[in-house]
Write a structure and sequence with these properties.
The complex is a heterodimer of chains A (156) and B (694). Chain A has one domain: Beta-Lactamase. Chain A is globular and about 45 Å long. Chain A is built from five helices and seven strands, in the order ββαβββαααββα. Chain A is an alpha+beta fold. In chain A, 46% of the residues are buried. In chain A, α4 crosses α5. In chain B, α12 packs parallel to α15. Chain B has a two-stranded antiparallel ribbon with strand order 1-2. Chain B has a domain of 165 residues. In chain B, a hairpin with a 2-residue loop joins β1 and β2. Classes of the chains: A alpha+beta (156), B mainly alpha (694). The interface between A and B is large, with 60 and 73 residues. Chain A: Its main location: membrane.
């Protein structure tokens, strides 16, 4: 995968994960152009299109578009399911996820994504294992919070 | 919102985000952001040392502002400081910031690499993963230099936790992609390949991406992975849906891993070992069989996962191109998908069939679906699907169906999206030329192309039709007649005028006998378009006019009149003016013999690779030209220009070598030089003739 973009129906970018080195300027241009192209498509159209020299796989969940750019030899259908799995993870974590969750907890969305995909490839496809890893990290947060309160430092 | 409080939500951040969302205008947003930036700047510069929580909050705010699209030029130092915090959330935010806002300051890089090194050697798996994620996200050369030797060690060490192995594998992959010279697999190769046998499916999933990439670059070193991959695939494909527990996705066992295994196998030719090959063929057959079984679930996720594996298996079958039975089955399966309810599947089937069309074994099988594909071209609502259908028609075209396919593509072109017209035009031109048995059909097709999509007919296309008409005696009369008719249309494209002008200039005599296309009629027809055309076209027309004077002396007076008028001989464009003046003079002082010699019919062009093919290749990249093009001779023994090629005339005069064709085919900058040269040569010749005749 080269990059993943999440954006609203008004074209506001909610998450942008880049797996290839590109300058800021190039990223902005790509985001702008691609978002326009996808928003121009009608609902019943297929989930794949060719754009520049990439294949684009996208799906809309409620008010958010999830859009991935993959290379010519990549498998489109499995990419669709990567998107779905990511949505499932967000959903489990936030409890019935909506766009607002991703807006106000944007850093969490990135952390969850990193547990699932790394360098553009799936690293763990068991939903249970990914969520476990995230929960463990969250536990560490709680512990570290507690440790900052006097008297509990022995816990940490 | 989360049911349980997930750690410490930073209230200040939430408030700031709310403020931004409530801004009514872009200006208000920028104002609020600038206020915050000033605040953060002062906090960072302030005397009081900030506590970890505050630092984290401000760094996170900066990150948010950056992701909104605004530039951030400070905060890196504070983010790097967070890396050395022993609080997990602070580290996490620090890493996120530096992964997103990559900074090339060498001092910062040194500090970052230090922090990463500490985390990697911390033996705390969560910290190690954070560090590995950061390296994978940034993947810079400096990181590769610092860590490329350490990560393989972590990857294969016995005491590394599974989650860390997964991150290490993909981290190494990223470093390999960006700095392959720094990632030396040497001593690690066999142990990395062995990861394919790991009992943890997640480790296998991650490792296989790394192995696939390494195999592509070093196939020999990694070839032991093939048999391991086949065993793994075989075990997955034959497992029941309960075997793989959490790696089963909507009743499909390990779909991601299956697809990756099939991808890995596409890096290699079919296995040589009979047993391994047998097992693999069995696997592929099972996958094809499963496609015919009733689905275990109605959910689209189930069918997507199942079909993802199916399509990848078909890709492998096509890649091997050696099992006729499997190829035909694959083709049939795709044929079924061509008429599936789901648009996605129809799209993928069309795409997949394109590659299948170039295989010797399945080319005929693909052709049987021509009616379905033509129907898709006409009736699909989605333009991306229609485009795939057009691509497939191009790929499946051969002598038996060329006329039908070209006709369909022409009619599609009339309503096609502008963005794809140029490519379609190139393809139609290539097909028309390649499969032309009857060259009058070819001429008709190109002229139709110009009529339908004139703007998108590039130079290569109309140069080619002229080259072919020049080289083939049998189609010259037909060409002259057809362009003459085409030019009668009230609104005709400029490219048509170019082609028409040239052809009538060369072969107008072949239709001059008919009073409806007498010389004067031809001239008036061309001249009626003159004022509508651009400079290059007018230049071409002027050349056509001087040729007319040679062909039809009776038109001399009329044409000279035109050449003489101010708008020609005083034209502000140098090229036009020069031509008008030169041609006028040439027509006045040269004897008929000299004129006939100078303006003799164009000799045939030498055979060269079609520049149209070259242009299509350039447009679409190396994969664009299907095997059929390259295997042309093998399959049909087709010649580009068929029939009896006229050899060059034996009595070629100096003028031909220079040839007036130079005036058309060379770029404008060289044209002047050529004109000068010709001027000198013909002047010399004319003078010598004059002196001979007294």
């Amino acid at each position: 995968m080269q990059f993943m973009l999440l954006f609203s129906r008004q074209g506001k970018l909610r998450l942008q994960k880049w797996y290839v080195p590109l300058s800021d300027k190039e990223r902005k241009k790509i985001s702008r152009d691609l978002v326009q192209t996808i928003l121009a498509r009608k609902p019943k159209m297929c989930s794949f299109l060719e754009w520049r020299d990439l294949k684009i796989v996208y799906k809309r969940y409620a008010s958010l578009y999830f859009c991935c750019a993959v290379e010519d030899q990549d498998n489109e259908l499995i990419t669709l399911e990567i998107i779905h799995r990511y949505v499932e993870l967000l959903d489990k974590y936030f409890g019935s996820v909506c766009e607002l969750d991703i807006i106000f907890n944007f850093e969490k969305a990135y952390f969850i994504l990193d547990e699932f995909l790394l360098g553009g490839e799936a690293q763990e496809t068991s939903k249970k294992n990914v969520l476990k890893a995230i929960e463990q990290a969250d536990l560490l947060q709680e512990v570290s919070m507690l440790s900052s309160i006097d008297g509990f430092s022995w816990l940490f | 919102m989360p049911a349980v409080s997930k750690g410490d939500g930073m209230r200040g951040l939430a408030v700031f985000i709310s403020d931004i969302r409530n801004c009514k205008s872009k200006e208000a947003e920028i104002k609020r952001i600038n206020k915050e930036l000033a605040n953060i700047r002062s906090k960072f510069k302030g005397d009081k040392a900030l506590d970890g929580y505050s630092k984290k909050k401000y760094v996170c705010k900066l990150l948010f502002i950056f992701l909104l699209g605004h530039d951030i030029d400070f905060g890196h130092m504070e983010a790097v400081n967070l890396l050395s915090s022993n609080k997990y959330t602070e580290k996490q935010i620090g890493y996120l910031f530096i992964s997103v806002l990559v900074n090339s300051n060498s001092e910062l890089i040194r500090l970052i690499n230090n922090a990463i090194k500490n985390d990697l050697s911390s033996r705390n798996p969560t910290f190690m993963c954070l560090a590995l994620h950061c390296i994978a996200n940034v993947g810079s050369r400096e990181m590769a230099e610092a860590f490329a030797s350490e990560i393989p060690r972590i990857l294969v060490a016995g005491d590394t936790m599974d989650s860390v192995k997964q991150s290490a594998a993909l981290c190494l992959l990223r470093l390999y992609k960006t700095s392959p010279d720094l990632v030396l697999m040497g001593e690690w190769t066999s142990r990395v390949v062995h990861l394919l046998n790991d009992q943890h499916m997640g480790v296998v999933t991650a490792a296989i991406s790394l192995i696939t990439c390494l195999s592509q670059k070093n196939p020999d070193e990694f070839k032991t992975c093939v048999s391991l991959a086949v065993s793994r695939l075989s075990r997955i494909v034959s497992s029941a849906s309960t075997d793989l527990q959490d790696y089963t996705y909507y009743f499909v066992p390990a779909p991601w891993l299956s697809c990756k295994l099939l991808r890995l196998l596409q890096c290699y030719p079919p296995p040589e070992d009979g047993a391994v090959k047998g097992r693999l063929v069995e696997c592929l057959e099972t996958i094809l069989n499963k496609a015919q079984e009733p689905p275990k679930s109605k959910k689209v996720q189930h069918s997507n996962a199942k079909n993802a594996i199916l399509f990848e298996a078909i890709s492998l079958i096509i890649h091997y191109d050696s099992e006729p039975n499997l190829l035909v089955r694959a083709c049939n399966q795709l044929g079924q998908f061509l008429q599936h309810r789901e648009t996605n599947l129809r799209y993928l089937a069309l795409e997949s069939m394109c590659t299948l069309a170039s295989s010797e074994f399945s080319h005929e099988a693909v052709k049987t679906h021509i009616e379905t594909v033509i129907n898709a071209l006409k009736t699909e609502r989605d333009v991306s699907v229609r485009q795939r259908a057009a691509d497939l028609l191009y790929a499946m075209c051969d002598r038996s169906n060329a006329k039908q396919i070209v006709a369909e593509m022409l009619s599609y072109l009339e309503t096609a999206d502008y963005s794809i017209r140029e490519e379609m035009v190139l393809k139609v031109a290539i097909l028309a030329e390649k499969y032309a048995v009857d060259y009058s059909w070819y001429v008709d097709t190109i002229l139709n192309l110009i009529r339908i999509a004139g703007d998108y007919v590039s130079e290569e296309v109309w140069y080619r039709v002229i080259q072919i008409v020049i080289n083939r005696d049998d189609v010259q009369g037909y060409a002259a007649k057809t362009v003459f008719e085409a030019l009668q249309a009230p609104a005709c494209h400029e490219n048509m005028v170019k082609v028409g002008g040239y052809i009538l200039g060369e072969f107008g005599n072949l239709i001059a006998g008919d009073p409806r296309s007498s010389p004067l009629v031809q001239f008036n027809l061309l001249h009626s378009k003159f004022h509508l055309c651009s400079v290059p076209t007018r230049a071409l027309l002027l050349s056509a006019y001087i040729k007319f004077i040679n062909l039809f002396p009776e038109t001399k007076a009329t044409i000279q009149e035109v050449l003489r008028c101010d708008s020609q001989i005083r034209n502000s464009d140098v090229e036009l003016q020069q031509r008008a003046v030169e041609y006028l003079k040439l027509s006045s002082i040269a004897s008929t013999d000299v004129l006939a010699t100078v303006l003799e019919e164009m000799p045939p062009f030498p055979e060269r690779e079609s520049s149209i093919l070259a242009k299509l290749k350039k447009k679409k990249g190396p994969g664009a030209v299907s095997v059929t093009e390259l295997d042309d001779n093998k399959r049909e023994g087709g010649e580009l220009n068929g029939g009896a090629d006229r050899g060059p005339d034996t009595a070629q005069t100096l003028e031909h070598d220079i040839s007036l064709s130079a005036l058309y085919w060379t770029p404008a900058s060289t044209q002047c030089a050529y004109l000068q040269f010709i001027k000198d040569e013909t002047r010399g010749l004319i003078f010598s003739q004059l002196s001979v005749s007294g």
